[in-house]
Amino acid sequence: MNSLEVRDLESGYGEVKVLWGLNLDVRKGQLTTILGSNGSGKTTFLRTVMGIINPWNGNIKFNGEDVTKLSTHQKAEKGIIMVPEGRLVFPEMSVYENLEMGAYTKRGREKFDDSLEFVVSLFPRLKERFNQKAGTLSGGEQQMLAIARGLMSRPDLFILDEPSLGLAPKLVIEVFETINKLREQGLTMLLVEQNVHLSLAITDYVYVLSEGRIKMEGKGEELAESDEIRKAYLGV
Amino acid sequence: MNAEVLIDSIISGLLLGLVYGLAAIGLNLIWGVMKVINLSHGAFIALGMFSIWILYTSFGIFPYIGIIMILGLGLVLGIITYFGALHRVIDAPELSTLLATFSVSLIIIGFGTFIFKTNPKALDFSLGGIEAGSIVILGTKVATGVISIIFTVLLYAFLYKTRPGKAIRAVSMNRTAAELMGINSSLILALSFGIGIALAMVAGALIATIFPFTILSGGGYELKSFVICVLGGLGSPIGALVGGITLGLIESVVTLGIQTSFVPVLEFALLVAILVLKPSGLLGGK
Ligand SMILES: Nc1ncnc2c1ncn2[C@@H]1O[C@H](COP(=O)(O)OP(=O)(O)OP(=O)(O)O)[C@@H](O)[C@H]1O
Ligand SMILES: [Mg+2]
Fold it and tell me: Which residue of B has its CA nearest to A85?
């Protein structure tokens, strides 16, 4: 059963086409990862899936329903939640208020107390900083908050755009451990990453994106063995 | 100049400053959330003046009840204006939104001039005065100051304590992130514009309980709002209130020495001086 089904997706900015007909599936309960070098179109793809930029062509199905034309907040209300590149926490709001905004959707609001307990158990450090303004958190803490904020809306499909970007190695590991924990709990996730080693280790299925096209796909462990991947990304 | 005249001007300036501040908060909110410079601000202030005048002279509605009705009217007009004039150009470069709000201003002033002509009106209404020695403070001025504070506090509570208020703040900080959380940002922008317009109209109505006015009076108060936003720094309602009080005081004390007609000159000079010396606003941190 697929959570997300993307067919022939094209989009871009102004006159410039970035995505050239992408096909991608995210299976329920699995962690799907998109790998690709800088500028290959990973963020553009996620932004198109979320409706932040409009698709030029193709369609997007979520839980079997066509959501191609829905706006971003409607998709969030349906349970597609993205932690964007660069975190984008609300800087002038307290950590607690950020979590409240995470629970803005109907599904989030109904389960606020449970979700709060859950994200605090994932990131105990956030609790000590409930009243601190999010803009004054360290980069790592902001990433934790962005993930926690996303989880507060009780996602059905959780999308993460380079959550380990710019973090110290120890925090990178922490982020991946968190993702793995969520995966073990059965959360459906779509992850964009540059950290090939760590992603391949925990991923169920991988797509490799290059110049706006899917260049390769396969099971995580299979691609980890693939010569092409090793050459292109692992430098071995 | 004796001490009593000075004290009188200071109190007067303080009370007027509060309502100038309230008007500026409307402008400030629209800028803060939407990044739109609302050139119809003055026209809506004038509309507030005429609304209270009609409610009072034609329907006999007590002005401070009328103000509540004008708040509702402003909210509705603001939301309609947003969807009619701004929604389609909100993501376009600033010039488009400037032109859009300027057009709205021209439409309001045009119809207003046609209906009301440009001769001055005044609200024939008094709350008496508070006397202390030879100083008399008009009751309407006191009421205006107090009501302005109440509205500011209510807005603050709305923005910080309620769900839609928090959504407004979230959209002002990052519209995309807010959408990703499930917030319908177009509705929030419409609501913010509605609140901004409602505050401008209420401020206009309050000013009309003190001074005579014409359909063109809004322009002068719009200028004051811009100066206050620059004084207080763009951002917080409290900053705008403090900026308002500062301008009110400067105005009323300085006019003891110079002619009233020089006030706009002074305000423009102040605006330019602050923009040159401290562009983030005298009180603005960032
Ligand atoms: N807002 C924009 N306007 C115009 N072009 C853009 C915009 N954002 C991205 N692009 C272009 O689209 C292409 C794909 O960018 P995208 O951000 O999707 O890459 P990415 O795979 O996410 O890269 P990274 O790993 O660096 O985040 C790039 O050539 C980029 O220059
Ligand atoms: Mg990217």
Answer: B177
Note whether B180 contacts A: Cβ–Cβ < 8 A.
yes
Structural element, H or E, at residue A161: strand A157-161
Cβ–Cβ gap A101/B179 under 8 Å: no
Q: Which residues sit with Cβ closer than 5 angstroms to ligand 2, an ion?
A: A 42-43, 85
Q: Show residues of chain B in contact with A50, CB under 8 Å.
A: 180
Taken in order B57, B58, B62, B65, the sign of the CA dihedral is negative
| H-helix segments, B58-138 | 63-81, 94-116
Give the model confidence (pLDDT) of A24-69 as tens digits.
Answer: 999 999 999 999 988 999 999 999 999 999 999 999 999 999 999 9
Q: How far is B278 from chain A (nearest CA, A)?
A: 22
Q: What is the pLDDT of residues A102-141, one digit of tens each?
A: 999 999 999 999 999 999 999 999 999 999 999 999 999 9
Q: What is the CATH number of domain B3-277?
A: 1.10.3470
Q: How far is the CA of B93 from the centre of ligand 2 (A)?
A: 25
Q: Where are the beta strands (DSSP E) in chain B?
A: 129-132, 135-138
Bridge partner residues of A22 (DSSP): A9
In one-letter notation, the amino acid at residue A198 is L
Write the ipTM.
Answer: 0.94
Beta strand pairing call for A57-62 and A65-66: antiparallel
- Residues contacting residue A147 through CB under 8 Å, at least 6 positions apart: A83, A122, A123, A160, A163, A175, A178
- Structure confidence by residue, pLDDT tens digits, A138-174: 999 999 999 999 999 999 999 999 999 989 999 999 9
CB-based pocket (< 6 A), ligand 1: A 13, 18, 36, 38-44, 85
Is the CB of B285 inside 8 Å of chain A's CB atoms?
Answer: no
